[in-house]
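Example 3.2
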Amino acid sequence: MSLAATIALLVFGLAVCGWAGWQERRQRGLGDLPLLPPIPVLLIGVMLVLLSLAHLVTLWTGVPLKSRFLP
């Protein structure tokens, strides 16, 4: 994946996190439920941000990140 695609994924993940945070803090009437639950969407956004940041580290340093748990 290129640097531009990684940065685009990072921006998209931040936008998803912002939208989910806004939906979570929004005032709602009694019984007015959101169409999409914001907490799982927020978790997906955080995962996208973390993965894209890890990939940016790999792109900038040239050294792939290795897992501590896999051989």
